[in-house]
Design brief:
The N terminus is likely disordered. It is globular, with a radius of gyration of 25 Å. It is of the alpha/beta class. The strands form seven sheets. It has a five-stranded parallel β-sheet with strand order 4-3-5-6-7, with helices on both faces. A five-stranded mixed β-sheet has the order 12-13-14-15-16. The chain folds into three domains: about 260 residues, Rossmann fold, CATH 3.40.50.980; about 190 residues, ANL, N-terminal domain (Rossmann fold), CATH 3.40.50; about 170 residues, 2-Layer Sandwich (GMP Synthetase, Chain A, domain 3). It has 22 helices and 28 strands.
Length: about 650
């Protein structure tokens, strides 16, 4: 069924869900330690209340409304309310710094901003010079805002208090706007992560979002009975699809945690049946797990290691439905009782029926770890421009080194250079105010260039991603250079948080390493290693020895692959600071800005290749309050 045949908008789905699931729970939010619930009927009433509030503030059809804050039901409702009156919601990353917020507000010419709390209001007010079109701010949490100038600030509470008056004044206009809404109109504008420059505003229609949501929901048989945890940034297309697109299509419940600090506890309480996380989250969960195991008693550690070794042998085959021996099955069932089941419970993944990871490649070892303990983790490949879904993995056909088959309704082709192209009902309309990029990305026949290099496995039709097309290169000896593949293998080790591998056009590969402060700090505590800062711990000789051992293991694996043997890392250093989105080194979705890192740390990269044993460097950093500063260090360079 095509999106044209569906002929629905997000507000249409809300109406349908009220009729179909009226008194079933649509949203939950934990606040002050207590879960609050809203039915689909409650959600519609909340959306209508906010839509009337928008009309009272003079919002016109086609106006852009920025939404900035953590995952909260009313902020999701504020986006649907914008759609209801023909305006366009533009969610912004909640951890974005002032300049990033100012760019988006100015570029989309938002006339209204919806802010979650005082912190977000402050960041918006600081950027007034960059967003001349901004007229009003609506805020949710009033704490700290009592003495602000309220001539342009309005609370959600005041909108609620004026509901009766707004209904009388704008009720007919609300009905008119609702009738004027159609599937081809803009549903949302989402900004890309901006790995190579300023982010681009991706314009998506109701047709795009609903077609992608329907196809993916049908593929995994998602139903009203599912429950999900909404903890990823609302500005990310994945969260928009899962928390609004699929949630409204399937009618399932979306749960918002109390805060990022309580997310893991809230995850265990909710026990989602449908779970999505980028690789960084799964890496972090694994690190936390390994730290707890190291702190456990000798008997528990031995039992864990024994059953995990068995899981690595038979867990994945069991998950994919392959036959294993009776004895292997009995041991695995014992492991389920003693280790795998309790481990899934600690991770909050006990009830996961369908789990996905995407955003960037996940290390095969990490992927297989979760599947081996009974988590139905799968991979998908997508983009903001595709309304997420390009490929998806069917149950029983899940492989660590592929991203599955084309999602229903999606066509895929590979050009002569190995770049992946797709065409689908979810394909975006345009990049906002950027026709040049639109035309260079999407051709007149609707084919979109992904910028990724890959190939389709002829044996099963699965797509395999090699790397970003612009990052794949060749070593000086002609061998393949695929940095992301090596980086993912290194990040399997819990002590390595992030790494950037260099080597394109060079004689050998080098690496810049970020240690995981939690994991390595735990090691330091257990071994009585005293340190006062990340920088001091990162430079400790024993930490260098640990990382050296990990790189040796990865090099041994790479040596077995003729195509990738040239990617073995010969020299490395441990960076004196964590790569940070506030410093422009990562995107807000935690992807490394490889070119930025290479330029910013050019002195370090030069030292890795000129034979230096150490290098002195000074780096500008951004503190939490936005102030700039500098840190200096002398870094050791280690041969492998």
């Amino acid at each position: 069924m095509t999106s044209e045949q569906l002929n629905l908008t997000i507000p249409d789905l809300l109406d349908r869900n009220v009729q179909k699931y009226g008194q079933k729970i649509a949203n939950r939010e934990k606040e002050f330690g207590i879960w609050q619930s809203w039915t689909w009927q409650d959600v519609k009433e909340g959306v209508e209340e906010i839509a009337l509030g928008y009309l009272s503030l003079g919002i016109q059809e086609g106006d852009h409304i920025a939404v900035l804050g953590r995952n909260r039901p009313r902020l999701y409702w504020s986006m649907v309310a914008a759609q209801w009156i023909g305006a366009v919601p533009v969610p912004i990353y909640q951890d974005a710094v002032g300049d990033e917020i100012g760019y988006v507000l100015g570029h989309c010419e938002a006339v209204l901003a919806v802010a979650g709390d005082q912190e977000q209001v402050d960041k918006i007010l600081e950027q007034q010079e960059k967003c001349k079109a901004l007229q009003q701010i609506v805020y949710l949490d009033p704490r700290g805002l009592r003495k602000y100038d309220h001539s342009r600030l309005h609370s959600f509470a005041s909108i609620h208090d004026n509901l009766a008056e707004n209904k009388d004044r704008f009720g007919e206009e609300l009905i008119r706007r609702r009738k004027a809404l159609s599937p081809e109109k803009i549903c949302v504008m989402l900004y890309t992560s901006g790995t190579t420059g300023n982010p681009k505003g991706v314009v998506l229609s109701h047709d795009n979002i609903i077609a992608a949501s329907k196809a993916s929901s049908d593929f995994d048989s998602l139903s009203q009975k599912e429950t999900v945890l909404a903890y990823l940034p609302m500005a990310w297309v994945g969260d928009f699809i899962f928390s609004i697109g699929q949630a409204y299509w399937s009618g399932f419940c979306v749960n918002c945690p109390e805060s990022s600090q309580t997310m893991m506890h809230d995850l265990r309480e909710i026990g989602p049946s449908y779970f999505f996380a980028p690789p960084r989250v799964f890496e972090s969960l694994l690190t936390t797990c390994m730290i707890r195991i190291e702190d456990a008693g000798r008997t528990k550690r031995s039992m864990f290691q024994y059953f995990m070794q068995h899981a690595r042998k038979v867990g994945v085959p069991i998950m994919t439905g392959e036959k294993v021996s009776l004895m292997d099955l009995i041991i695995y069932r014992a492991g389920e009782f003693f280790v795998y089941g309790p481990l899934r419970n600690v991770l909050g993944l006990s009830r996961v029926r369908v789990g996905y990871t995407a955003g960037e490649a996940i290390g095969p070892e990490i992927f297989d770890f979760y599947r081996s303990i009974g988590v139905n983790l799968k991979q998908l490949y997508g983009q903001t421009e595709a309304s997420v879904f390009i490929t998806i993995q069917p149950d029983g056909e899940v492989e660590a080194d592929s991203v599955g088959i084309a999602c229903p309704g999606v066509e895929i082709k590979i050009d002569d250079r190995g770049e992946i192209f797709y065409r689908s009902p979810g394909t975006f309309i345009e990049y906002y105010k950027n026709p040049e990029s639109t035309n260079s990305t999407k051709d007149k026949d609707g084919w979109v260039a992904t910028g990724d290099a890959g190939f389709i496995d002829e044996s099963n039709g699965h797509l395999k991603i090699i790397d970003r097309a612009k990052d794949v290169g060749k070593m000086a000896n002609g061998k393949l250079f695929a940095p992301k593949y090596v980086e993912n293998k290194l990040k399997f080790f819990p002590d390595i948080l992030e790494t950037v591998v260099f080597g394109n056009g060079r004689d050998y590969c080098t690496a810049v390493i970020n240690i995981d402060l939690i994991s390595v700090g735990n090691w330091a505590e257990r071994h009585n290693v005293v340190y006062s800062s990340y920088q001091e711990l990162a430079g400790h000789p024993e930490v260098y020895d640990i990382i050296h051992g990990y790189i040796q293991q990865v090099n041994e694996d790479l040596a077995k692959d003729e195509n990738l043997s040239g990617c073995r890392v010969k020299r490395f250093l441990i960076l004196h600071k964590e790569l940070d989105a506030d410093d422009g080194e990562l995107t807000r979705t935690r992807k490394v800005r490889r070119r930025v890192v290479e330029d910013k740390y050019n002195d370090l990269v030069t030292a890795l290749y000129d034979g230096s044993k150490e290098v002195a460097t000074t780096t500008e950093v951004t503190y939490e309050d936005g102030r700039k500063g500098f840190i200096s260090a002398t870094l050791r360079i280690c041969e492998v």
